[in-house]
Structure formats: C-alpha cells, structure tokens
Give the backbone structure.
Amino acid sequence: MIIKLPKRPDSIFNNEHLFNYLLDLERKQKLDILPANLMVYYVFSTFVNEVLNGGLVQYFTNSSKLTYIHLRQSAALLNHEAFTPYVLGVCDYVDSILPLDFDNEIDQAIVEQLDVLDNQFYELDEKFDALKITEKFYKSNYSIEKIDIPKIKEIESSSCKYFIAPKDLICRDIKESIESFLKVLADFSEQRWTIELWNFFDTYRITASTYGKAIDLETVMLHWADSTYSFSNSSNDGYNDRIKLSSTFEKISIMSGTDGISEYAVRISSSGFEKNEFKMKHQFVMAGRAYDQEISTISVGDMSHKKDPEKYYIIKNYLESHYKEYKNIETVFESGEY
C-alpha cells in the first residue's frame, strides 16, 4: 500500500498501518531503509522518551533496545551541537561494555556510569528540548511524501487480539443483526441502556449509552470471542449474538470511562487478512472531557443513507418495536441532521 507521510511527525503513531510497519522494521532491525527524517524521528524519539521516563536502564530493558543498532547513525544525521556528541558518547561507552543484560545483576560501576549519563541527558534536555529538536529535524528534512509499504498484521498482545467468525454465524440480515445488538446490550445486564440513532447528514450510527457502571474492557478483550462466556453469567447465546454483530457492521466500538476524565475503547473490525477474521484493539481514546460518573457506550456503524435508503427505517422500526422486550433498555431516540 502507498502511505502518505504526515507533515506532523506526531501523527505517525495515529496511522495504524504505518506504525505496524515501523514496529516490524524495528523487530527486524531494518529501520535504516526508511526515509532519513522518518528513521531519525522514530529512533531518536524512542530513545528520548525512554530515557526521560526511566533512564538508559529503561531504554535497554524494553523493546526500545531494538532501535539501538540505528542510534549512532540517527544521532549523526541529527547533527545537533549538543545531542549528537552526547549520544555518540553513550554509544561508545555502551559498545565497550556490551552485552548489557539487565535480567541479571549489572556491575555497580556500570550502573553508576549510566546514572551519570542520564543526568547529563536531563541537563541537555532542559536546555535544548530533545523532542522539539527531533520534530524540527523531521520537518526540515521532509523530502519524500509517500512510501510503498507492505500491509503488516499487528502482533497479538493484551491490547490486540484476532478471532475467526464461524461461517454459520456470518450475518447479513439487518433485522437479525439488530436483534443481536439488542441481545448484546441485554447481556451486559448490569448496565441500563439508552439507544440513539445518531445522524450527521448522510452518515448514521447506532449508539447505546449507559451511566453509573462502566463495562470492563479487559473482560471484553478476554471473552468477546469466547463461545462459552456470557457477560451476564446466564446460559444464553451471547457468543452467537456477538459474532453476528461483528460480522454485520464494519466497526464496533465499546467505550468506557471510569476515572472522570479518560476514555478507553475496544474497537472490533475486519482484520483485512484472513477470511472472516476480526481484530479487537484496546486503546486510549481521549482525555479532558470531564464526567461525574462511570460511562460506557456501544456503537455500530457508520452507515450511509444514500447507499441503502431503506436500511435506516428498517433499523429504526425494529428498535422501536422491540427494545421494550429487554428490561435494561430504557428508550430509543433519533438525533442530528438527516
């Protein structure tokens, strides 16, 4: 795929395909095939963030150590009056004592020297601001607008999981899908739901909201695709309904907020790799919009009025006719412009 490189380097991490490609190159230690400004930004900002958060010990303990092979080259290309000689000095020292293995006890003299180097970095950063310098280098050396990259499948982790939907649960009937949506809400039995048909001209989505008790997103990650699990601890067909819902809509978003300011979500969508394979991603959504009690939403869509004019009214009529069958669903209403 062709990826357009962002003019603002902090946007790199918002492009899932580009970020997965960078992680893949990091694991393969081939970041030097990137345009120079992108390699320097990624390698040097990784180094800076790790040292700021936990010193050189953290940099060489975490996966960030995989970027070390390109650190000397990146510092040379950065060509900064203070940080370039500093990083080259760090590399000279580390190369002289390799391999560093922080899983075992490190000689106290090495620890003390790393502490000295940490303090030198903090002094330089206070004076020059390493991240601003790195961002300026990226922008000043922006010479390649687009790069051709392979589509990289994100590695499974606690925040990224995949599942295959059984063929017999692939759903294309909109009424059956909306029935499954209502049943999924009912299975989150500790929540009381308000359903909104949200419209923004041609686009619309279905959003169910609840206040007072948030959905536990870690439990969602663990059990959404678990055929034996019910969120209400009942013996219903919760799994079947979750899979039908996943297979119908391009994107499902399950969002929760518990601390009064931050919001996180589990996004469920087609993986784009295997047939009937879906990806679940647990991620930070936003901070700054205050709320005074725990919140959760489950949204499906987006859909288009123009592409299928009748679909909206099928959904609307089904929701309005059947939501009262579920004791924890309180109302259905329309909003926005349409």
Remarks:
- The mean pLDDT is 94.
- The longest strand covers residues 277-287.
- The chain has ten helices and ten strands.
- The first helix runs from residue 16 to 28.
